[in-house]
Design a protein that fits this description.
It is a single chain. This protein has 334 residues and is α/β, with parallel strands linked by helices. It has one domain. The protein contains 15 helices and six strands. Strands 4-3-5-2-1-6 form a six-stranded mixed sheet, sandwiched between helices. α6 runs parallel beside α10. The longest helix has 27 residues. It is globular.
Length: 334
């Protein structure tokens, strides 16, 4: 990794740190810093410039990387996880080299763009006049929020977003934190390297895939999500998924539906189809359009968007791209 520092030179290395400024200093959410007790999950650690430098120096390649070539240009596909361990944030040599060769970075949503962040905040907010959850569900939601030590910080969100936020936060006792998500770090890193960052989706479209306009279906989604948390099933699934990502075991993700215990009901299957497969076609069209615009792009999206017949590698192959998986560490294809 020392080659990176030599290649960048001091001015560009300083720009990289400036691009990662959102990770530096006391920038953690207020709820993550207040009211913490010995029984609360650990608080995510803000990164100092030295921590970023050291993290990049010793980083290992993790996750899944493909090269898609057409018309003499390369598009990179990188499958990520949105909650990770702290040391996983830093891209290893092969991933970093791919990002450096690309002209631009494309994320599902670039949350470092103030306009995107503002629109996302509006999209997840509770709708005025919407019927409240049944009292029993409200109490269960409050109990899980108390257990997660988030107080009432989620109370202004739509009920389904409150429940799904608790799922995203559930792995913190085991070192998995959304604050260490791979996509956010790449967004800061790309800015430090002077590369444009593009959102492949709109906040409104992404949240529409997560929520339910039907109140009975909304309540059912919240009920099933809370039940998984209450039964202790959420964390083992998160750990298995993220460990498979860290180890580069693509076969584990390809068999996700067989072990996740998240496709047992009609509601769960419909939700998964909307959240994953339903977004793959629009993501593919956007990636193809960026490629056809004449610039190389590094695409970083959730790893589940990379598997199966509708996943981005298979979809780009059908669009005439020459697609090959790039070996990464111990999980590289043999």
């Amino acid at each position: 990794m020392g080659r990176l520092l030599v290649h960048l030179g001091r001015p560009l290395w300083q720009r990289l740190l400036l691009g990662l400024a959102f990770l530096l200093g006391p920038a953690l959410p207020a709820w993550a810093q207040s009211g913490a007790t010995a029984t609360c999950p650990p608080t995510a650690e803000a990164l100092s410039p030295e921590a970023v430098r050291q993290g990049l120096l010793i980083a290992q390649d993790r996750g899944f990387l493909w090269q898609a070539r057409r018309d003499g240009r390369v598009t990179w596909l990188y499958g990520t996880v949105h909650a990770a361990q702290r040391q996983w944030m830093f891209p290893g040599p092969a991933v970093l080299e791919a990002l450096k060769t690309a002209d631009q970075l494309a994320l599902e949503l670039d949350l470092l763009d103030p306009a995107i962040a503002s629109r996302l905040q509006a999209a997840v907010a509770a709708r005025p006049g919407e019927a409240a959850l049944p009292q029993a569900l409200q109490q269960r939601l409050k109990a899980q929020a108390a257990q997660a030590c988030v107080g009432d910080a989620l109370s202004r969100l739509r009920p389904e977003m409150q429940a799904m936020s608790l799922v995203a936060l559930a792995g913190r006792r085991d070192g998995l934190d959304p604050a260490y998500g791979i996509d956010g770090f790449l967004g800061g890193l790309a800015r430090g390297l002077g590369k444009p960052v593009i959102s492949l989706e709109t906040p409104e479209a992404q949240i529409q895939a997560l929520v339910q306009d039907s109140l009975p279906l909304r309540d059912q989604l919240v009920d099933e999500t809370l039940a998984e948390l209450e039964r202790g099933e959420t964390v083992p699934g998160l750990l298995r998924l993220t460990r498979a990502w860290a180890d580069g075991r693509l076969d584990e993700l390809e068999n996700y539906g067989q072990w996740c215990r998240c496709l047992d009901t009609e509601q769960q299957r419909a939700f998964h189809a909307r959240l994953v497969e339903g977004r793959n076609a629009p993501l593919t069209r956007r990636v193809v359009a960026l490629h056809e615009a004449g610039r190389s792009v590094f695409v970083a999206v959730g790893a589940l968007h990379m598997v199966g017949a509708s996943g981005l590698p298979a979809a780009l192959a059908r669009e005439g791209f020459e697609v090959r998986r790039i070996p990464l560490g111990a999980g590289a294809p043999r």
